[in-house]
Amino acid sequence: MTHDCSFLEDLDLADEQLSFADGRRESHAADWGTEHNDGDGVVPDAVVWPESTDDVSAVLAAAQDRGVPVTPYAAGTGLEGNAVPAHGGISLDLTRMDDVVDYRPEDFQIDVGPGIIGSDVDEYVASDGLFFPPLPSSGDISTIGGMIATDASGMQTVRYGEIADWVLGLEAVLADGTVIETGSRAIKTSSGYNLTDLLVGSEGTLAVVTEATLELAGRPEQIRGGRAIFETLDDAAEAVFDAVRTDVGVAKIELVDGLSATMANEYLGSELPDAPMVFLEFHANHGVDEEIELCRTIFENHDVVRFEMSDDDSEMDDLWQARRELAYAVASYDPDLEPLHPGDVTVPISSYPEMVHETKRLADESDLLVPCFGHAGDGNLHYSVLVDPDDPEQVERGEELYRTLVDLAIELGGTATGEHGIGQGKQAYLEPEHGAGAVEAMRTIKRALDPSDTLNPGKIFPETADGERIRDPEQ
Amino acid sequence: MTHDCSFLEDLDLADEQLSFADGRRESHAADWGTEHNDGDGVVPDAVVWPESTDDVSAVLAAAQDRGVPVTPYAAGTGLEGNAVPAHGGISLDLTRMDDVVDYRPEDFQIDVGPGIIGSDVDEYVASDGLFFPPLPSSGDISTIGGMIATDASGMQTVRYGEIADWVLGLEAVLADGTVIETGSRAIKTSSGYNLTDLLVGSEGTLAVVTEATLELAGRPEQIRGGRAIFETLDDAAEAVFDAVRTDVGVAKIELVDGLSATMANEYLGSELPDAPMVFLEFHANHGVDEEIELCRTIFENHDVVRFEMSDDDSEMDDLWQARRELAYAVASYDPDLEPLHPGDVTVPISSYPEMVHETKRLADESDLLVPCFGHAGDGNLHYSVLVDPDDPEQVERGEELYRTLVDLAIELGGTATGEHGIGQGKQAYLEPEHGAGAVEAMRTIKRALDPSDTLNPGKIFPETADGERIRDPEQ
């Protein structure tokens, strides 16, 4: 489906803010998940690079008048097709709106454009001893706007929470071009509806965020990092649950299964055992050693084989190397295999051992390679179901395993997507997770705020009747 | 305006679940703020005590069909008329839905009915070393449902956040009787719109909460409490700002001005100086003494006169006595004087010294007694503008001062209501705080989810054109 976007030339945009060129449009057709989701992406009819809130407002108002879809885009690091222009139209590339608009270190607050890279926020505030805690692992590539769109989170969420917990307010543009401000600079407010948290995680389907007021945290005085190695994955998962239940003061607690460890060892040429590992980082102002000892005791109760911790930056880096390089290790393990649908599920922490155990059991049963890792302290599990894309039977087996795992997470009281949003990839799971009533309430809000379905149409809500569709961008 | 509510007799409700008696109806006409807001309340046409989600659903569906308003009610401890049935109709008293439905200590989670008293949650989980941190000062009287309705918060918010930060999910009934579930038992989710945080703080205007999944925290190992006395209020406010900016690990940091101290001394017969005070509580697992010393040093830089801290429960109680009894002290200070519009404003912490200073300056200028206190670490200030209700000129002077203070808070980047909601009392400030666009977006959501305006009509949104109305329940 193509849309006539020539009206964009009549708007007050500089030449370099608008392109109809094939190359520019094609570079906005996909995200990181597209290839693995067996898709080619969808090429937008035009790309616009707004440089101000007024630009965004003008594009939206004009597009809505003409029934042309607008899909916000930035780094393109989403995994669920969140920024893919499913119905064509305009890709609204916000990467040039990357300014620090205001910085108030005395209030632990910073106002930024949506296009700023996450780690740039960290660097900007570092000299004041501050940091932005909820950055995802892709924080040095992904933008704050993208993180807000999917309510992203990451390794430090176990201690510091998710993006939503650190967004105090937003400036955003509604589908008709109206600019609104949400939230407050006060750290709490009970005035009116919480539009901020409604927009966070709404994947650009309700409004386009043009500025965000973020909270910052003070850097902890004590940071220690390291690694624990276990004999079995069950031991490792139980140890994580026990540590979280005991309220050990970890800031990161990452599980990596034995298969992932094998892949990392092969990739890095390292000589670690091909065994399940837990990577840890402790943050505290006082008593970090006591917390580490408490954690060691708990881990020993679960037969930890090795427990290594350091307060030296370079040693910590070494201990964490396998975790850090894991994505590359998995990707390069076997050139004939590709992961199906990268993403995550998240379950209540008490169900984490069962989720992990069942994942491996089902993977064995399916006779497929499924390296697993995750922000375990949140109950988060990333799985890569590896299949030979040229073997349709194997692909179908992988698809079935993938569906079974997501269904299991929901059954255990968890969520189909802890940190990557619904996008296109997880639409089939929206209603099983939330129930028909809640999904209809979400649709009601979408229809009310964006009656012409201008903003990122085809996302979050399944469009087909049978609800079985995992991904069908042509729909 | 009265509504024929006889249809309630046809619903499947026991006799003791429904009353048309004057006494029962009159006891649901007001909240804690009504008298001080110079109102008589509004008597509902009927009171219903639902005992199940099905009861709530049946009442709402039937009421919506007949155009009868339904206003949720529980402890009646709101300050802004939040639970007053502004347009009559049904008062839906949720106090009998006070069960602990499920308790999962291993996940730090509890599912409760909306009618449960806050401190009952604390007691229920105490033996597992857990507690519910964001309880307001009225936590031993107020219900969880009421706290959710106004996104309440309290003394420990400076460390632990507000109610919204501790609600993982809700069961709620929409205006047409549809039961929905929101959120997840996983501690994070990015699946679909965040309906949970939209409903928290919506004051029963979008749905009636029938069950809440709350997060719990582990009790800290170290608790110390005490009091600091300052020479001037400016010193005290600056000291609080400096402590918060330095990230001192306080769990409570309460400011009390000299006038409040005078009233407390008089009420208690205590011999403390009539001077500004800061009440403190520190929570930590390690290093609490270091944090206290850091705080002492900061306070000494602001000329603290006395700094007393204890780890003994009964000594802590003694040190906190003036703060604990403050509300009673203010209320009984002068029988001829009454506070206008109790409530709060909250500003960014860097603006707190200015907010406090200006409040006292304007009070002096108005020649009125205005005792002030607040959860200072949040930038929160409660003021009581005391006036002789029989002196219209004084009342008008008081009203003007009140409006000036709320306007000032908004001007300083803060909020008209940090923890008590908009209700009827703060409607005039909704648009000045959020702007016309955001308020219209809120109205759009209200109209979409409750098209017949069944749920708590006349709240949050001003109904008069001029926006000047502070309170007009007859409208």
**Arrangement of strands in the largest sheet of chain A:** 15-12-14-13-18-19-17
CATH overall fold name of the largest domain in chain A: Uridine Diphospho-n-acetylenolpyruvylglucosamine Reductase, domain 3
Please report the first level of CATH classification, the CATH class of the largest domain in chain A.
Alpha Beta
CATH architecture of the largest domain in chain A: 2-Layer Sandwich
Query: How many helices of chain A?
Result: 15
Strand tally of chain A = 20
Question: What can be said about the biggest beta sheet of chain A?
Answer: 7 strands, antiparallel
Shape of chain A: globular
Tell me the strand percentage band of chain A: 15-25%
Question: Can you walk through the features of this model?
Answer:
The structure is a homodimer of 475-residue chains. The first copy, chain A, is globular. In chain A, 32% of the residues lie in helices and 20% in strands. In chain A, the strands form 5 sheets. A 7-stranded antiparallel beta sheet of chain A has the order 15-12-14-13-18-19-17, with helices on both faces. Chain A has a 5-stranded antiparallel beta sheet with strand order 5-6-10-8-9. The model of chain A is unreliable at 465-475 (pLDDT under 50). In chain A, helix 7 (233-245) crosses helix 9 (288-301) and helix 12 packs antiparallel against helix 13. The first copy, chain A, has helices spanning 22-26, 53-66, 118-126, 144-150, 157-160, 195-199, 233-245, 258-268, 288-301, 313-324, 326-331, 352-366, 392-411, 430-434, 436-449; strands spanning 18-19, 46-48, 70-73, 90-93, 100-104, 109-112, 130-131, 167-173, 179-183, 208-215, 217-218, 222-230, 250-256, 277-284, 304-310, 338-340, 344-346, 372-374, 380-383, 385-387. Chain A has 475 residues and is an alpha+beta fold. Chains A, B: Keywords: FAD, Flavoprotein, Oxidoreductase, Transit peptide. Chains A, B: It comes from Natrinema ejinorense. Chains A, B: This is D-lactate dehydrogenase (cytochrome).
